[in-house]
Write a structure and sequence with these properties.
homotrimer; Rossmann fold; globular
């Protein structure tokens, strides 16, 4: 039985296989209802509407059904029930479980008690492998994944999305440019892991100093609560904002990604420029998750 | 691509076509699963269970699937995301979107950013075209729509349902009797529009003075918060309440409509009289919405 | 039209028929999508995730669809609407309604106004017939239902689950051992009914004094709010806790049941012993509810 718990569990071949499968689905569609009569159970202990919606859309497009396995309500209602007990019960109701949980390690634990496949839909500061696969797939739509120069912008200290993507890119010998204000850079341990795995990691204070060299710019949000006061948050947010003028002189084939929702990180005037790929990236959630669901249930 | 945003966008032929299609569905049923593998996305930024449920039931009866595209949760979660961004993302997950939103104009805006059809499920004090189509369809089940004499009862100043219905009836040369307490009559601008479009509009203080002449009596609720104090609310509610004795002497084929839920506006003793059509009207939500869904997705 | 309101409405033949049907489904599966295009409406006026989930899973496995008919939201939104009106409207949206309601008698009332079958998913301190059928089915998987010696543990004064099960077992001449602290024993009227129906009912203060004679031990939770203070709750909970040592010397074929979720009533060390059947019991919710849905909709 296959689970998807961490992007680190997947080698390059497995990632390439999923990307290929998603690409074929996006072009040719899936077979007629391959997952007919199958049930995808969504067990979300914290809200994550985008993740839930694109898994649900993916499952419906494959002819299957979805059901809400509770989560927030279960946890408040059944106070004191262990995650192990919950998983043992609900894995009788569904053919695969997507679990979203606030605690790191919850998905791994769940996979030990479930007798159906478990897909990690995000476990706290831990892993969220489908998001990383979507990011890789979106890059792959524009260029080969090997040896890209990628800039990661935002709160790189706490940003799960950028950590997982950076780690996955070690499979493809990326050159990683970490762009963040002081104090919000990549954790030392992650930088060590990335270099160990053969990636070059270069740190920057500003986007301007590196943007013209990049193939991919991956933008994420700053969390207001990481800053001592609103003024310093707005200062940082303003100086890392992506605008049309910042994009002058970049490579023709630069692509701009963002896991969405965005607030002010990217000026809406950028949306109509050829670099903008973040809405396409959001929609790629469906074919990538279709590929994952087929892997575990077909 | 066809959207349904306002009843004003539909001419008489288009309304008649929808009513005919709904009538055929109600009698013969739909083809076997015409919307198989299609997904209806429900994006409700304010609760409206009846509208949601009857769209959902309509979609399921056509062989399709439904998914909740968030709404209230999305808006609280993704603080600061624009409606345009939300629509661009979620229109990748569904084949049609039903949008309910507290702000007038939201559905029109959404239809500009969606690349799938948008059906307005109510935008604040604005439009709610499927409700009006249900009202027209229910009247049509009992009599031709042309030149009916209809009484509208309730808070006609703020009542979206009665405004849309009145407007739609201009297509059929109705004689409109507006029955409301002082201060809650039809807005001047609407009366002007209705008369401009060729309808006669007559205002009344009491139901008694006109009920014996009517073909249709359309009853709506008074909002308690429109009244200065509970006593004046109860006075008004009592004097506009529909009872068996009020109905003595009415036309044999009078029909009584109400968009439901009712509280005290109609005495339950009226339910078993032949005039009562409000439960039938509620159920007509399914075939009418089936017709609308087929129009936009088939 | 068949409703399922109370286990008391079912005679022994009807129960046996449902158990057989569930058993055949569990072994052979259901036909291909027997309830295709049918809609199960879930009307839950109080949360009950396990009941909802297993009905939903059962319906999906039969090829049908489910929809949430509101409940908690409806009731807050449509303040003042009667249950009769709600049922009249929503029974236009679904082919069967599962109703969960805090008030005893609500399901019976609903069945009078619905023109589709109503299944009681629990009405306050009243009935919850599908839970009892699951309990009977799980016992039947291990032994014939006739003349079993069953121990009921927990708050037997207020415990709906144990009352319904005890009542159903009168059809099978069970010997009922009621095990509870003073003040939380079976109500006098129920003991009278059980004896009237030919069952022997014996009361016990402790599990130890009877456990070695039992075929089935049915464990339920104590509600903390029934106790004057936390200390007396913990005292009772500890002395009625099921542990491996308590189980020494029991019959080889004793089975342990619990409606779940459990908190501390059963030591997790018991889970791996052959007596533990509570997870199997939870999963039996699906085939038993499949059988019920087929009875009312096929």
């Amino acid at each position: 039985m296959r689970h998807y718990i961490s992007i680190r569990d997947l080698d390059r071949n497995q990632i390439d296989h999923l990307i290929d499968r998603a690409a074929r689905i996006a072009v040719y569609g899936a077979d007629a209802q391959p997952l007919k009569r199958k049930i995808l159970g969504l067990l979300f202990f914290e809200p994550s509407t985008r993740t839930r919606m694109s898994f649900e859309s993916a499952m419906l497009r494959l002819g299957g059904s979805c059901m809400n396995l509770g989560g927030v309500e279960v946890s408040s209602m059944a106070k004191g029930e262990t995650l192990a007990d919950t998983i043992r019960v609900v894995s009788g109701y569904a053919d695969t479980i997507v679990l979203r949980h606030p605690k790191v390690g919850a998905a791994r634990l769940a996979s030990e008690f479930a007798d159906v496949p478990v897909i990690n839909g995000g476990d706290g500061a831990g892993q969220h492998p489908s998001q990383t696969l979507i990011d890789l797939y979106t890059i792959h739509q524009s260029m080969p994944l090997d040896r890209i120069k990628i800039g990661l912008v935002g709160d790189l200290m706490y940003g799960r999305t950028t950590h997982s993507l950076a780690y996955a890119l070690t499979r493809y010998n990326a050159e990683i440019h970490a762009i963040s204000p002081k104090g919000l850079g990549l954790p030392e341990s992650l930088k060590h892991d990335l270099r160990e795995a053969g990636c070059e990691v270069i740190e920057h204070d500003s986007i301007e100093e590196i943007i013209r060299d990049l193939d991919v710019l991956y933008v994420t949000r700053f969390q207001r609560e990481r800053f001592p006061d609103p003024a310093s948050f707005f200062d940082v947010a303003a100086s890392y904002r992506i605008t049309p003028s910042l994009l002058q002189g970049v490579k023709d084939n630069l692509i701009l990604l963002h896991p969405l929702p965005r607030v002010d990180e990217i000026d809406p005037a950028v949306d109509s420029l050829p670099y903008a790929r973040y809405f396409q990236q959001a929609r790629n959630g469906v074919p990538v998750r279709m590929a994952m669901l087929l892997e575990v249930m077909q």
